[in-house]
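User: I'm new to structure prediction. If I give you an amino acid sequence, what do you actually give back? Let's try with this one:
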Amino acid sequence: MKTMQSEFYGDISRWFVGVVEEVGNDEPKLGRVKVRIYGIHGDREQVPIPDLPYAQVLVPTTEPGISGLGRNPMLAEGATVFGIFMDGKNSQLPLVMGSIPVVQV
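Assistant: Good question. You get back a string of structure tokens that encode the predicted 3D arrangement of the chain. For your 105 residues, that looks like this:
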């Protein structure tokens, strides 16, 4: 039998770092991105871009967060991002919390 403690969401958090592979193709244009997560998705031969899951992206609290108002995230392909999986150990619902500045070479 599950206890209240084991059912509480957030007990198991999984963090990730990855690279944005695709921007701007999600429907219904929520600003989601496809992220290749290091240690999970391998390279493009192992997991092609169409097979990557969409990741939701946090926006600051200065944005309304409802349809038709505010701005979508402005991540670019190639950006290094940091986030969590919203479904814990299942690791199917990535949420990007921010980007990590990198120097492109």
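You can read the tokens as a compact description of the fold. Here is one thing that stands out. The first strand starts at residue 15 and ends at 23.
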